[in-house]
């Protein structure tokens, strides 16, 4: 998570702070929009707030800029931009269980294919990958939290497949962020779906198949949902409401499910999951929070310091030492 020293440069409208992630085709940087810094140095700004307040405000304006130069990157980023634009058109942001990365800006390469050279999304900060949270050494979670994950994963998938008519293509724990700054009404942290680089819009025939509930979904779109379904199924519940051999095989062995199977899983377990989540007590929510914060500390993802943010001001025309008050008044 240190500042990246490679030749990759972020667009001129952003101030690079640290590397958020790196893949085979590109790099993701935590950045500040230069417009955010300029707003703190506007002529009408006669008294800047205390240092801590400035850093806190700037942290809320962080963006994640994904950039790369390979042909593959430009192709997959173009697909990602298309899906994120459609999500924005559906006004999907903020819906319960259906939070997605929010597109802020992008650049189309000037060619006939309209490929993208970079894109910027709202940074989910601080956050950790769901994979990091679930699979840390010695971690276990209450069933109320498992039910919460099942509900948010299911709502997001159902929205993508039914409403948006797209498959994510890589709907796995490492592409699901636990947003440590946002909570559901239950008190548990919200999940955010990101990285739509493998997404694909459905064809007309596939849309018809989905409406008829017989479209076979890619396993990559169902892996996380399978797992959480299995987690909330205990022996007592299965005796009362068996899931069915075909669905249980899919959950255990990764065989293909149709939309009808997914609807059946949702029909059978949604009410039970909501009832289970609603039974949570405050100490359960607090226990999940403690584990999540420990996982964040171990991951090194909480890498944007106040000094780094104030340094961005100093490097862009504001003397952080002299112009910012030292303490809250």
TrEMBL record:
TM segment ranges: none
GO MF entry, a single one: protein kinase activity
Domain (Protein kinase): residue spans on this chain: 14-329
Entries under PROSITE patterns matching the protein: PROTEIN_KINASE_DOM
SMART domains linked to this entry: S_TKc
Domain of life: Eukaryota
InterPro entries reported in the protein's UniProt record: Kinase-like_dom_sf, Prot_kinase_dom
Protein name per the record: Protein kinase domain-containing protein
Organism whose genome encodes this protein: Amniculicola lignicola CBS 123094
Organismal lineage: Eukaryota, Fungi, Dikarya, Ascomycota, Pezizomycotina
């Amino acid at each position: 998570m240190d500042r990246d020293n490679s030749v990759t440069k972020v667009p001129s409208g952003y101030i690079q702070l640290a590397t958020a992630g790196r893949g085979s085709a590109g790099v993701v940087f935590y950045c500040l929009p230069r417009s955010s810094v300029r707003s703190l140095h506007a002529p009408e700004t006669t008294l800047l707030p205390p240092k801590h307040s400035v850093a806190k405000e700037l942290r809320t304006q962080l963006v994640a800029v994904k950039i790369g130069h390979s042909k593959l990157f430009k192709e997959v980023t173009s697909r990602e931009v298309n899906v994120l634009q459609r999500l924005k058109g559906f006004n999907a942001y903020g819906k319960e269980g259906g939070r997605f990365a929010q597109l802020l800006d992008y650049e189309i390469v000037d060619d006939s294919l309209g490929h993208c050279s970079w894109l910027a999304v709202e940074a989910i900060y601080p956050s950790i990958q769901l994979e990091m949270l679930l699979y840390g050494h010695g971690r276990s979670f209450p069933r109320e939290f498992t039910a919460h994950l099942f509900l948010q994963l299911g709502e997001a998938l159902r929205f993508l497949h039914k409403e948006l008519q797209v498959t994510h293509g890589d709907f796995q724990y490492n592409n699901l962020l636990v947003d440590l700054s946002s909570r559901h009404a239950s008190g548990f942290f919200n999940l955010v779906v990101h990285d739509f680089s493998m997404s694909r819009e459905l064809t007309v025939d596939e849309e018809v198949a989905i409406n008829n509930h017989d479209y076979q979904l890619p396993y990559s779109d169902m892996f996380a949902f399978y797992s959480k379904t299995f987690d909330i199924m205990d022996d007592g519940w299965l005796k009362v409401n068996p899931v069915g051999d075909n669905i249980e095989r899919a959950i255990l062995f990764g065989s293909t499910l149709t939309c009808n199977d997914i609807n059946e899983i949702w029909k059978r377990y949604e009410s039970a999951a909501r009832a289970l989540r609603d039974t949570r007590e405050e100490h359960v929510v607090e226990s999940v929070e403690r584990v999540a914060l420990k996982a964040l500390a171990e991951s090194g993802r909480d890498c944007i310091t106040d000094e780094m943010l104030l340094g961005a001001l100093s490097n862009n025309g504001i003397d952080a030492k002299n112009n910012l008050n030292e303490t809250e008044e």
